[in-house]
Amino acid sequence: MASINKLSVRGIRAFSPDDEEQVIAFCKPLTILVGANGCGKTTIIEALKYAITGSLPPGVKSGQAFVHDPKSVGSTTVKAAIKLRFTNRAGNTMVVIRSMELTQKKSTMTFKALDGILRMTDERGQRQSLSHKCSELDRQIPQLLGVPKPILEYVVFCHQEDSSWPLMEGSILKKRFDDIFDSTRYAKALEAIKDTRKEFMTKVKDHKADLNLLQGHKHAANGFRAELDKNRQALSDIADEIQSLDTKIEQQYQQLEETRKILQRRDQMQSEVDAKKAEIEQEEVRIETQRSALQEDLVTDRGCDRTQLENMLKGFHSTMEEDMQRLTHKEKELNELKIRRAKIQQQRHRLAEQRGVLIGEKKNYERDLATRIQLIEHMASKYDLLLNLTQTQTQTQRTYNDDHDDDEDDGTTLGTQQQSISTTTRHTSQDSTSNLSLTKEDMRAFQRSLQAKDDLLNDQLTNHRLVTQTTEDKIQGELGDLMASLKSIENDLKRYQGLKNEAMEELRRLGNTTSFSRIKKSDIDEARRNVEKFSKLRDEANNNPRRMAIPREIKEKQDKIQRLKASIEEDNQVLKQLRQCAEDQNNIQLLKNQVSSDMESLLIAKDDNSFLLQKHDVHPIFHIESDHDELVNTMESMASKVQDKLDTSNDKLSIEARNLKDIGIRLAKENSLLNHTKELLDTKKAKLSELGGRGVQRVKQILKAVRAFETTQGLGDPIHNDIDPQDFLQHLTKRIGEFSIDDDSPESISRTIKKMRKLSKVKDAAGQVVDVICPCCSRSMKPETVRVFGDNINLLSDPLNSPIVKMDQSRLQKSRSAIRNYENWRTTISQNINDCLDYKRIMLEIEGLESTMEERETQSKELQAEINHTTETHTDLETDNMELQQLNDFARRLRDDAIKIADKKRQILSKQEDMALIAPSADGKNLRTLESELTSKTEEKDMLMNAIAELNRESGDINDNISRASNQASRAEKVARDKEERHAQEQKAIARKQELSDSISKHKEEENKLQDQVAPIRQKAKSKESQKFKFRDEAKKEEQEFSNSLNTFRSDAIKINSITKQIDAYSSSNKMQQFDQVDKEVAQIGETLKGIEENLNEMEPKLLSLRARVNDQEGRKKNVESNIELLNMIDDLNILDDELALLKDKIDQLEGVDIAVTNESKINTNIRQYEAEKSRRQGSKETLKMQQRDLKRKLQTPEYNDIDERHRIKMIEVETCNIAVSDLEIYYNALDKALLRFHSMKIEEINKIIQELWSHTYKGEDITNIRLTSDQETGSKARRSYNYRVVMAKGTTELDMRGRCSAGQRVLASIVIRLALAETFCINCGVMALDEPTTNLDYANKRGLAIALAHIISSRAAQENFQLVIITHDEDFVGMMKNELATHTGISMPERYFQVSREEGGDGSYYSKIHAIDWDEL
What we know:
Elements: E1 3-10, E2 22-25, E3 30-35, H1 41-53, H2 70-73, E4 77-87, E5 93-104, E6 109-113, E7 116-121, E8 127-132, H3 134-145, H4 149-156, H5 170-181, H6 183-292, H7 306-383, H8 404-410, H9 413-429, H10 440-513, H11 521-542, H12 546-608, H13 610-615, H14 628-692, H15 695-713, H16 725-739, H17 746-759, E9 761-763, E10 769-772, H18 783-797, H19 803-917, E11 921-922, E12 925-926, H20 927-1068, H21 1071-1149, H22 1153-1196, H23 1203-1257, E13 1265-1272, E14 1282-1290, E15 1293-1296, H24 1303-1321, E16 1326-1331, H25 1339-1355, E17 1362-1368, H26 1371-1383, E18 1392-1400, E19 1406-1414
Parallel strand pairs: 3-17, 3-18, 16-17
Antiparallel strand pairs: 1-2, 1-4, 4-5, 5-6, 5-7, 7-8, 9-10, 11-12, 13-14, 14-15, 18-19
């Protein structure tokens, strides 16, 4: 069971954020907190509520006023913490810690709730701490205590400002009671169940509609599958026919291959013949070309044979070899000379470059010498250096001579360049330059002078720095002495000022201390007399005899009260038994009223549905006085009749629904097939349009063109317009064969004519032409005839001008043009013949489909008319069925209501029988007498308790007198001691003031003396510091001048040293000797080049003459070789003629050629016929495949894809939704009934507790009882809601208590209702906190409240987790509670109570403090 154990608070409201935590250990069964107004008592309730629920008190500005104000402690941030140790409902001890932070900004404050901590001890005894967010703790803590959050906020830890909420306005009261009863959540649950049921009912309707649609799609899909199977069978048959045609075509192709092999052998031989002819022609052309290229035709003109030509060729070889050897030797010598000349020229060019570099270096050397002399003279004059140099005047003139004659004779570029270089050198050398020649000893002497000057300048700079530093140190020392004196005086001055200030501060404090009225000796004597007076009064109060008598009288009265309580308890038991009869009578009357009301409702319901009852002949006969068994039988008979009629109607409706479903399926199937036929017809028409606009149109155009061409050419009767495409194709093939004739190219005609000229030549055995004859008649020709014959032969053999060629070309052009046209037409017809065949086939299929579509449209209209008639019949049956269903539900409700009425009547009879057995009185006492005795005993007990209260008040007055006298005596004693101490302190202060005044005067004198010494020293120090800065600036300028002189001198010396190093480097090298050596080598190379050029000039004429003679011999040799080659060509031509004659003989001997030509044409015709038949079959196959694809595509569409599985799933969904609707209706009714019962039970339980507490608490006579009523709002069950109000009974009249009661009655009623709610709902946690419960209560009602609370504590003292926390400022009420608790037995009195007060802290502010005080001191 849950309970609270200990609470610690820091930084909340008036509790200090810096001092130690204020702790309260809660007692069982009662914890009392007492304190004055504003001391922080309500803060305890607020802290408890915040620690458990996380809810802030009202009016705290989002938590800003809940935490201690940062401004009061002088800080920008204040942190607060609340710790609560509690026991959860499982019996485990836990600690919750909630922390807050309040930050003060410029104009606003920010409140922040930090993460909380929940600490617990696990099974192993180890402590665990878990950090949680505030929202998580707000949910967890109420669950751990086992109490809903609304109970904790509105009942257990109700704030003082909201303590009267049970009598607030209706909307607030309704919201809080709805939260307490959790009505809204369950009302929403009912609404959710109802909405969910509606959703499932809607789903059922939608699923049924989808199921009917899927049923139609399923039947249509089955039709598509059957048609698809037929299509597959037709495709299989066509595939077999195509395979048979492929076999026949393959056989024809094999025969065609054999025939073509024979023709290929003929064509191959013919190709070889043509190739030989081409070779012969090429060989003749080569012979003519070779003959025309000869310088002299030794074979034709001189008649030389092969032997003569070979002998002539051998004679040339020996002469040619000698000349070639001499020519090769001379050319070799010439090349060697040219190579040598090139190498020498390269060497001379390299020497010229080297000579230029040496001249440049010499010029630099002379320039460096002049520069060094200038720098030395400049430094000597600038720095006053003494120079003892050996000066010598040297005239240097150098002339360089080259051999210019050779260069001019040479005439080369190199000679010109050398002449330019020599001239330039000569001009430069002839200029006179005067140089001072410095020896090494001179340079060493000059270097010593430089070093001496450098040392002198450096010593001047060093000496200047030493003098400057010494002078500055001296000035700085004098300045330091002055500053030290000034510092010493200022320190003494500060010390005297500090002593003076301390003396003045102490004097001021003494003045403040003695500024009040001084204590006189007479004041001390008066204080001592007051001490004696108040001590005497205290002793008299302690010796009062009533102080001992009052406890004895209270004990006697308490014993008498205990006896009265026992007697009252026994009378209450008897009274309870007697009141049972009264309760039974009230229950019987209540049942009779309910039976009468239910019967009236039954009759009204029957009248409301009289139309349907009479329509279906099931009108029940009963009246308000009918016997319960008769009523039940009547209602059951009516329900049975209605159920029979409903079953009959359902059967008819099912039959009509099945008929409607079957017709719908048939209609869907017909519509599906009709749509499929329409789509197929549209596809065929589109295909027909495509064929008509593509291939067929082209065939028609070709047919028209062929007719026009043949009519123009006069090629017989024109073809018909309706000719079959295959016949048209054969006609074109025939025409191509007619125009295919052998043609000869112009070259072949020319070769044939040339052969006639060859045949006209008669040769002897040696191959010489001896005569010219006619190739046709073999007659000899005269020379004139031979010339004319040759001219004609030349004209006829000319490929460009031959009349034979022109005539043949004209004929060939016409034939080739016709063949091209016919071949193009045949190609186009072959490409589009399938389109023509498909066009005719599709035309026939379209006619069949249009006929089928008309039949299906007629059947669809007939089915639509039939389904309309069936739908009307089904609608009428549905209307009757809905009325019978409504009537069946009404009959069941009437039957259920009749059964309930019968049960209530039986209960009335049973209770009346039980009442007859109970006696009207007990032990000779009736109910009224017993109630009167019980009232008198209760009044006697109250009188005794009032007497005890009076005695307690008297005892309290005595104790107050004693306490007041003791306090007065203590205060008087303290005042006397204080006056004596203050008098002694005043005497000491007077003496101390005189001492301090003397000390201050002395310090002022010393301070003035020191002040006079400060100004002169400070002026001297300032002057000395100015002198130091001035000297430092002047010394710095002089040092800069010395430094600049030294740096300039060293820079000039460095320049001279650098130039000297360059001069020494050139002097130590052998550049002058290198220059002379180069001049000698250049002269030698010039002589050598001159000799080489002379040799070349002598050799070139001889070489040209020898080369011309060798070339002439070579030409003669080549002419002989060409004549030999011509003889070889003639021999090759004769061999080719023999091979050509042999090939023609083989062609003539080849057999079966004519038969192969005839068979090839026949086989081609058969192949075309078979392929045309195959194309027709393939067209039919493609049509069937297209239909098959269409059917498969339809089966793959969303309507028919996986239709069987979707139909099965949809049937399952329909059944599942129907089951869900039924279950939800059962859940709804069960939850609604449970809510009604729970609400009525809780209200009844609360009112019983309120009645008992009110009778014990309220001492007025005007209000006999109060109770809580809940009225249900009108509306549907799903929106069930209650309106709550508190009513009071005045006599027999009930009135709303809000607005009609006093402030005290309102407070008392609110406390009673809260106690009743806590008794009802706080099963797991028995904690209850009352904040200022006596507000607006008079003495009697305060006493009644104390009695009631004592009674509650007494009755629940045995409960381990019961805790009542009372916070009040009313000490009289606390005394009443103590006295009332003392009258009850079996109660463990609390060990202590808690005092809350405001006490001054260390910073002067007042903070709330909690102190535990023993219970006996209360």
